[in-house]
Amino acid sequence: MSKLKFELQSDTRDSQGNSRARAAKMTLPGSLGEPHEILTPMFMPVGTVGSVKGMTPGDLKQIQAQVILGNTYHLYLRPGHARVERLGELHRFMGYSGPILTDSGGFQVFSLAGLNKIDDEGVTFQSHIDGSSHRFTPELSMEIQRALGSDIVMAFDQCPPYPATEDQVRSAMSRTFAWAKRGLNIPLKDHQTRFGIFQGGLYEHLRKESAQQIMSLPFDGFAIGGLSIGESPDMMQEMARLTTPLLPKDRPRYLMGVGRPEDLVEGVRAGVDMFDCVMPTRNARNGQLFTSRGKVNIKNARYADDTGPLDPDCSCEVCQKFTRAYLRHLFVSKELLSARLNTFHNLFYYLELMRQMRAAILEGRFDEWAKTFYRNREDDVR
Fold this sequence. Notes:
The chain is an alpha/beta fold and 382 residues long. The chain is 40% helix and 18% strand. Strand 7 and strand 8 form a beta hairpin.
């Protein structure tokens, strides 16, 4: 029996029967004695090494982040999972009481392909920090995540590159299934839940086969892996539309590593519940800010004397207190405060976007809301 409770609250279609957008309540046991109630659809800020860059736990609470991410590979290398466990597990170590999802390290098999060698047993890789050699297996990934004490543990998978041949994708898919089964043999802590990941590249028949394989295993939720790795947004969105109907309605659906605001809208339309991406935090540090009217590149000289708020429709404290002129000044002056304020706003924007979509789904007006979302962005700010 799953330790994760998933209550579907609304599952509606638009007037053309195209939308599968849904709202749900997900409850996790919680490692600190209190269960965590999570409302979906939702976006998870990325905190790779136990820190959402530029944000304190208080900031995350203020913007109402529901779940954040940590990364198994990076935390294994530094400071080390055994040390984190000795220091009270990841929640206490970083002073964050909310739910944490840990990626398995499988994505680094893909993203650091030049530093690793993959075989059926696991992955041998060189540390990107000091060049030292390490061996990752599905079993070790589970042991690391158990030590970290995260609330959602991701299965160890192999993400094939894009583009890839059908044989390459099938090989990665087969390893993903075998590794998922092996990982399930490793016990976790009482509060921890597990998500399986299915692959299949852009081959619809392989996606279907991989989903059936992973769904045959006792996972608490299911993730769509191997997308947003170089294919066009249209291709990614199409594959999400094709694959979400394959997944059970009574379990959360997670589209990994996505993405742009448009991708979140289309993912929700397809029936996805959970998203994560480094885009809002990374782009914030590079001066690209997301608003209800489109993107703002705050370094542009046109904002040097602009006394207006970054986004007049945004209620975050950055938009309420600071002008575009000031935010530009901070960025061009390379002030640390620039990254902090920009990150705060971008994450608030993403989380507010999800809250708006959830409200629209519950009120039966998602299609109308989405049309307004796109209409407001027609004059994309630059």
